[in-house]
Design brief:
This protein is mainly alpha-helical. 73% of the residues lie in helices and 0% in strands. α3 runs antiparallel to α7 and α4 runs antiparallel to α6. The two termini are 49 Å apart.
Length: 319
């Protein structure tokens, strides 16, 4: 029969291990109600499973044999490591995506600063290239999130729109136009050779960031990782309820749900990071990042029509 002190020590170690892996991603004052809104349907299924396990043990197997307590102990430890590994890999994907868009912020400012200070006598072309870069960012964001976002249209000329309308990859087509205009500036001697190379290198970095973002989006996280974790968690909840009911009686239903809630909510929280560009609270805040770049570049151009920054939702997260 499982001892309460042993169980308490095991549960504490599991929770500490998981929290170090995953809970760092959330704001410190996250509301429990938001977690429950995301897990309530799973909670109901777990309560039903725990109830069924208790009834099976109480009326079918109680007088025949006892479930060894070592089974849920080993299962729980193995699942904790498995969830920790999955969540760590999911966080790596999220952090890589955040670094890519952090680089886009820095390169965008450097690109605009170089155009404004290194190009001579081509103010209209410089302004058009900066506007076109803002369009590139919005087009890339829309593609990564799989949404229809036509904000980029207002930053493109009619000629640009006509040229890119037959391209499946709009943001790549915009970069191609940028390279062509930079070449025209070089031929007209508006920018010297050294500075041409420096500005062109920034266009290359934009292309690299675009490719890395597309790689993260198009690389599927192994389905078996998530599926097997779910199966093992349900197996653990059932066996844990069977064992704890030997000493806790009907209260094992609540205890089984409570322990299952820790594992399930942690697993769900980790898997929400697998696709970092999705339009949800756990994703990379592309709206905020893109709007920040837009504001910075427009102010560098001396524009007066500046959009408002993206505001946090419920003071918890930004999209």
């Amino acid at each position: 029969m499982i001892k309460f002190k042993e169980f308490k020590t095991f549960l504490a170690s599991v929770c500490i291990f998981i929290s170090k892996k995953q809970f760092m991603l959330l704001v410190q004052n996250i509301r429990l109600s938001r977690i429950l809104r995301n897990t309530w349907h799973v909670d109901l299924i777990m309560i039903a499973s725990c109830t069924a396990s208790y009834l099976v043990r109480e009326y079918l197997i109680a007088h025949h044999f006892e479930i060894p307590s070592i089974i849920p102990t080993l299962l729980g430890t193995a699942i904790a490591f498995f969830i920790g590994f999955n969540n760590n890999q999911a966080y790596d994907r999220w952090w890589e995506a955040r670094k890519v868009w952090g680089a886009l912020v820095n390169d965008s400012r450097s690109f605009t600063r170089a155009l404004l200070n290194y190009v001579d006598g081509e103010e209209d072309t410089v302004k058009q290239m900066v506007f076109r870069h803002i369009a590139f960012l919005y087009a890339l964001k829309a593609n990564l999130r799989g949404t229809v976002d036509e904000i980029y249209i207002k930053y493109l000329s009619q000629e640009d729109l006509k040229e890119i309308e037959n391209h499946n990859n709009t943001h790549n087509a915009i970069l191609n136009i940028q390279s062509r205009d930079l070449q025209k500036l070089s031929k007209s001697s508006s920018v010297d050779g050294f500075r041409f190379i420096e500005i062109n290198e920034m266009l290359v970095r934009f292309s690299d960031s675009m490719g890395m973002s597309e790689r993260i989006k198009n690389t599927i996280f192994p389905t078996t990782y998530s599926y097997l974790t779910k199966v093992f968690i349900w197996l653990f909840v059932v066996t844990f309820t069977l064992v704890i009911s030997q000493s806790a009686g009907i209260y094992s239903i609540f205890l089984g749900w409570l322990i299952g809630f820790v594992f399930v909510s942690t697993q769900i929280n980790g898997m929400s990071l697998v696709n970092p560009f999705e339009n949800n609270s756990a994703g990379v805040p592309l709206n905020q990042i893109t709007r920040t770049i837009e504001i910075n570049l427009l102010q560098m151009l001396g524009e007066t029509d500046i959009p408002e920054p993206v505001k946090p939702i419920n003071d918890e997260y930004v999209l």
